[in-house]
Design a protein that fits this description.
By secondary structure, the chain is α+β, with helices and mostly antiparallel strands. The protein has two domains: about 35 residues, no CATH class; about 70 residues. Helix content is about 45%, strand content about 10%. It has a two-stranded antiparallel sheet. A hairpin with an 8-residue loop joins strand 1 and strand 2. Bound molecules: zinc ion (2 copies). The site of one zinc ion (ZN) has 8 residues, from loops.
């Protein structure tokens, strides 16, 4: 079977092509994956810093000063964050869709993020 060197810099242990690291350096696999995840998040981070988004979010917050989630429960609370109803990680095309936005207070935003994380874990 074809073999290659372990992915650890300087390690000359030969391992099967299906593996990236030898047993001794296996733990590096995790940080590698972590790096990839972080890296793929760059697109979203860049978007949140883009002028198109900051402008839109500002406009939306001016139009919706109160937290919409609290409002639906009869609570009047100032909104802190302009949030995507459908997360841009789920539907990238809706990132600048006015109808996909909602104003949330910090509390509601945290709550929503927690639910999203929980839902993702259930999948
Ligand atoms: Zn190694
Ligand atoms: Zn709220």
């Amino acid at each position: 079977m074809a073999k290659h060197y372990c992915g650890h810099a300087g390690c000359r242990t030969l391992i099967p092509l299906t593996q990236h690291y030898c047993d001794r350096h296996k733990h590096e696999e995790n940080s590698r994956r972590y790096f990839h995840r972080k890296h793929s998040g760059g697109k979203y981070e860049a978007f949140y810093q883009s002028t198109a988004w900051t402008k839109l979010a500002r406009q939306y917050k001016v139009a919706h000063v109160l937290c919409e989630r609290c409002l639906s429960r009869g609570i009047i609370r100032k909104a802190d964050i302009c949030d995507h109803i459908i997360p841009i990680k789920t539907d990238w095309d809706k990132r600048l869709d006015w109808n996909n936005l909602q104003s949330l207070c910090q509390n509601c935003h945290n709550e929503k993020s927690e639910i999203e994380v929980a839902e993702r874990k259930n999948k």
